[in-house]
Amino acid sequence: NLGLKVEIKTNDEFKQLANAFNVMSTKLSQVDKQRKDFVANVSHELRTPLSSIKLLSESLLHQEKVDALVYKEFLQDIDSEIDRLNNIIDDLLILVDLDKEKLTLDFKTTYINFLLEKIIARLKPLAENKKISLDYIEREKIQIKVDANKIQQAVINIIHNAIKYTPEGGRVEVKLYTERDYVVIRVKDNGIGIPKESLPQIFDRFYRVDKARSRSTGGTGLGLSIAYQIVSLHQGTIDVESELGKGSTFYIKIPIDLNLA
Ligand code: ADP
After folding, report:
1. By 3-state DSSP, what share of the chain in percent is helix, strand and coil, each rounded to 5?
2. 215 alpha carbon to ligand 1 midpoint, in Å?
3. Model ipTM?
4. CA 232 to ligand 1 center in whole angstroms
5. In angstroms, what is the span from residue 84 Cα to ligand 1's centroid?
6. Strand pairing partners for 243?
7. Is the CB of 98 under 6 A from ligand 1?
8. What ligand 1 atom has the least distance to the C-alpha of 157?
9. CA distance 205 to 165
10. What separation, in Å, do the N-terminal and C-terminal C-alpha atoms of the chain show?
11. Model pLDDT for residues 217-261, shown as the tens digit of each residue
């Protein structure tokens, strides 16, 4: 709370001014709270893998004789915790970049279908590892103005999630089509689904339905918030439909004629 409040009762105009000021003050307090929460969350997220690393290395250091196999096992655990820290820091740097006040996007006319083909080819091995079929079912040839690197990042995050949260042998389908003034990239999976009560929160930074599952798949809890921010910067939206145990469908919608003014 910034403790700012103005009250003037004598004149209507002044009252309006006071109201506007109070609304702004409340907003500033909210932003301040969000910033504090974010710093607290970041600290917590970084501390968790660090604590594991500390515990693992200490227990190795304090044992007289350690079997070579146990050594290796502990070092592998330390290695994956370091990967985790790297993932979190990479995602945080992306967010810092997207948060920049004077962020300039590199808008270029792009064949979105070719971009999708490239993304799918890149994620195919990951899907094959889990015996998941990753299919691009419609390939409408569509050109739009986007920052291709950023949109690629957003789409990868969504398809990667579909693969992560779908059990072995499942199916992920990607479809590209136009709907009124929008290009729609639909990513549909038949995975674990998202509980109804969690749906409003999944785009929040660090929110996960199941922390343990997210961690074990290398998740940072930041992927969807990054995707959301990128798509918003293109004046688009991401919608989601999901049913627990049945699967989820994400709709990335980007305006065809982006107003770049
Ligand atoms: P994470 O790194 O944990 O995957 P995200 O921000 O990408 O973080 O997603 C937030 C949470 O939303 C995930 O932890 C997961 O619980 C849920 N989620 C996202 N995509 C899917 C999906 N396709 N199926 C089921 N749950 C999902």
Report:
1. 55, 20, 30
2. 11
3. 0.99
4. 19
5. 16
6. 247
7. no
8. 7
9. 18
10. 36
11. 888 999 999 999 999 999 999 999 999 999 999 999 999 987 665
